[in-house]
Specification:
cell membrane; 499 residues; Na/Glc_symporter_sf; 19 helices; Sodium/proline symporter
Length: 499
């Protein structure tokens, strides 16, 4: 790449670190500020922060790559994601904002799970925290793989060096500024991603004389929409659309709802967030579709389909714009990694160390432990990401399913089922996570394949967890009076804020 591209990237890195320093001065003196930004985050920042942390590197690399290889099959994943995000805003966001505050100002998702049952140190808190740390380590490694591939493909740097650069910048501003730094950088990164995912497919399309020429070139390699419908199976459709179920249980997304400044601001955040998502996800699919057409029309060799956005950035734009587009990929990668690191560190400190410790740490010491937690999870994810043969979309899909099945049903039951019991919550989490792990890793089919080759693991995981939550609650004793009182207070608070 030319010097102008490196200048663009350097300015981007400086801006991210500057935001981290600003946030360090604003909100990291206590653990509430470090983890949730003091519950004062604006709807605009909430919307773009939730979107940017959700869409990560797979939006600019994994999803275009899937469209490049599989064609319109990838579109059904996108449909499921849009529907899931919308329902998440409608069903989870407003109630979670109120319920977590009423539940003794719960700062983390595992803490809410425990205090929902009137037990600050309930076993469900530690179990869910352990699941968060394990799956987020896997999830973070997916982002690092994307960063390593970016630096290797775009800058001809060693893959491992790319991992270190990506991780180094993210860890720096996350360590400094906590949740506020993560949210503000996500806002900037979301704006960059929006522009990039409009610009790249539009400019690539201008290389063709007509839509007919574009379609003819693309359909040399992938089936058209009619052929896709004819070959689509019910299991395949359910597996793709079921990605939307994952939204209810993604800690790095729903924690944004806990931090927004008021319930009234949720509708504004929803409108902004869903508009952003629609444009960016269409842009990602369009990048992959135009990419396969361009490769066929102009004999472009694409060794790794997940790098088609990078290739377009290099061959179609001035070096200065190319650097900006590389920054967009880094923005997508870093926004998610930073969110995952912060949530993982929060679970390590608030939900594991503080719970098992016999001494109550000071606010300053807890923030310091949080920073050490960020570094620890980052190092573990770095070790996993050293294998560059990993598929970004595959890593993301596994972690997405794990969280969606383990936490998704429980979040909904906590907010909507008054008689949910602690034993049911614990059984629901473990059964959902276990189902996903068995589906992914145990070769139960005759040819040695796993069940995930037949159906996406979030479907059975979500179903098993939901049935377990319902069944154990029916068999268990009634929840205690403190649990009923908390639920009633939260319901009343919701009604008061709506009126």
């Amino acid at each position: 790449m030319q010097a102008e591209s490196y200048i663009s990237l350097a300015l981007y890195f400086v801006a991210m670190l500057g935001i981290g320093l600003f946030a360090y001065r604003q909100s990291t003196s206590d653990i509430s500020g470090y983890i949730l930004g003091g519950r004062k985050v604006s709807p605009q920042v909430t919307a773009l922060s939730a979107g940017a942390s959700d869409m990560s590197g797979w939006m600019l690399m994994g999803l275009p790559g899937a469209m490049f290889v599989a064609g319109f099959d990838a579109m059904f994943i996108a449909i499921g994601l849009v529907a899931g995000a919308l329902v998440n805003y409608l069903l989870v966001a407003p109630k979670l904002r109120v319920y977590t505050e009423v539940a003794d100002d719960s700062l983390t998702v595992p803490e809410f799970f425990a205090k929902r049952f009137g037990q600050a140190n309930a076993s469900v808190r530690i179990v869910s925290a352990v699941i968060i740390v394990l799956f987020f380590t896997l999830y973070t490694s997916a982002g690092l793989v994307a960063g390593g591939k970016l630096f290797e493909s775009a800058f001809a740097l060693d893959y491992q060096l790319g991992l270190l650069i990506t991780l180094g910048v993210v860890v720096s501003y996350t360590l400094l500024g906590g949740f506020l730094a993560v949210s503000l950088t996500d806002f900037v990164q979301g704006c960059i991603m929006f522009v990039a995912l409009v610009l790249v497919p539009v400019v690539a399309f201008t290389q063709f004389d007509s839509v007919e020429q574009l379609n003819a070139a693309a359909f040399e390699s992938i089936p058209n929409l009619s052929e896709t419908w004819q070959s689509l199976t019910l299991v395949g459709l359910v597996s793709s659309v079921a990605w939307g179920l994952g939204y209810f249980g993604q800690p790095h997304i729903i924690v944004r709802f806990m931090a927004i400044r008021s319930v009234g601001a949720v509708s504004t955040a929803r409108n902004i967030g869903m508009s952003w998502m629609l444009v960016t996800i269409i842009g990602a699919l369009a990048t992959g579709f135009v990419g396969i057409a361009y490769a066929n029309q102009f004999n472009l060799d694409v060794a790794d389909p997940e790098t088609i956005f990078i290739i377009f950035s290099q061959i179609l734009f001035h070096p200065l714009i190319s650097g900006f587009l590389m920054a967009a990929i880094l923005a997508a990668i870093m926004s998610t990694i930073s969110s995952q690191l912060l949530v993982s560190a929060s679970s390590l400190t608030e939900d594991i160390l503080n719970v098992v410790s016999t001494k109550q740490a000071s606010a300053k010491a807890t923030v310091t432990m949080g920073r050490f937690g960020v570094a620890g999870v980052a190092i573990a994810a770095l070790m996993l990401a050293m294998d560059q043969s990993n598929s970004i979309l595959s890593l993301v899909s596994n972690a997405w399913a794990g969280f969606g099945a383990a936490f998704g049903p429980l979040v909904l039951f906590c907010l909507y089922k008054k008689d949910l019991t602690h034993k049911a919550a614990l059984a629901g989490i473990t059964s959902g996570a276990a189902t996903v792990l068995v589906w992914i890793y145990v070769p139960l089919l005759p040819d040695g394949q796993t069940l995930s080759s037949v159906m996406y693991e979030i479907v059975p995981g979500f179903l098993v967890s939901s049935l377990t939550l319902w069944g154990v609650s029916k068999l268990d004793t009634e929840p205690g009076p403190k649990t009923i009182q908390m639920f009633s207070e939260a319901t009343q608070e919701m009604a008061d804020q709506k009126s």
